[in-house]
Amino acid sequence: MTAPTSVADRDVYTRYLERTRWFGGKGRPFEVASVRRIGELPTAREGSPVVVIELVEVAYGDGPGGSEVYQVPMALYTDPETRLDHAFIGWWEDPDHGWVHAYDALHDREAMACWLAAFDRAAREPGGNLNDASGLRFHRLPGHDLDMETHSTLFSGEQSNSSVAFGDDSLMKVFRKITPGVNPDISVHEVLTKAGGEHIASLYGWLDWVDGDPDSAADEGTGTTMQLAMLQQFLRTASDGWDLALASARNLFAEGDLHAYEAGGDFAAESERLGTALREVHAVLAEHFPVTTLDRDEVAALADGMDARLDEALEIVPELAAHADTLRATYARLRELVGVSVQQIHGDLHLGQTLRTSLGWKIVDFEGEPAKPLAERLKPDSPWRDVAGMLRSFDYVPHVVERQFAEDHPEGVEQRAYRAGEWAHRNRNHFLTAYAGGEPTAEQRALLDAYVADKAVYETVYETRNRPTWVGIPLEAVARIGAA
Question: Do 60 and 146 sit in the same domain of this protein?
């Protein structure tokens, strides 16, 4: 066994962060600048570990510099728990609890029972939201009784956050990167849940922390709030939209020389239903959040941002230069628009943010693009940005499958390329027509074209940096914009 680590030794947190999936600073030089324990959860039952929540501030040493804050919930045990060796953080003499062995609490069912009990208490008991000196506060929405007899299961697939299912009943998302202010994933879900929205997983509750006096923060709006976790409906039998679309494209390629509409796995009807679902979600958001109209200067600023991102992309993806003039012409048409409406939107919508249930499509993860600052994610935007994100996602599906088929079947490349384009066009068209309620107007098309172009340019940069062999997918999309 390694030597015990003092709680003041920040190297233990450095080693821990480096091996997690959700730490966003991998590959960047950093140091742990501070560690702050912000609260301790009540025990759920006899034998429960001590469960604490710490905020770890990371300072970066590269060019951009800056810092980030990450949430680290820990289960503290007096003796080693070999069942949790994979989640071990370190051991040290804790100032409040003596010698402890610390583990990532989300891997520990005993620790997770403390969260579930706290959420239940918040709904049943006056003052049950732990609004005490710690500043931790559990909030609950009425209408759902939690299953207190179930156990937790940590999901392994997420990267930027961590999710834990409580049986088949509920799902808790723990935000790892923490920013002061309201998280739109909570605020949007709260509004849609209270409005009876059919196309989301209902929000059951959330946990936040007030840095300052929690009593005065509740009464006078003082103090800084950081939202730490949300509890929502668990759509256990739902199917991932991206996976369903991939299956449809695979079916098309496997069935021989068929058109997309002839294949047994034709996805067009689902694309149409998804377009209707998004339109209805946007309508509810417009009813409950402010809707404003951009003036000419603000529309110009929107186009200027797209131009600036293209300038940056040209430095990274030289192949874009052949299409730069056409892209700029697309953004110029955006500048000519008058009366562009903006509102609360999803902000990072693609097929991977959708779930198909027996009752229809559900849209998830309203947090916006995690890489963007919170202030930017909270800004109203055009609903057509969400539409553009979905159209780009439909374009990716068959081209990803096409590349997978090429590895085992190098013959028939041209035929598969044609059928991939047909699948993408068919599903984009069905989705867009359903969303727009018909053919988009000229103004809507100009706005949509600009957002699609902006998204495709972003994708060329992402693929160049992360999956160079895929960069052809967005580059082909950029070329189509030029040919339109």
Answer: no
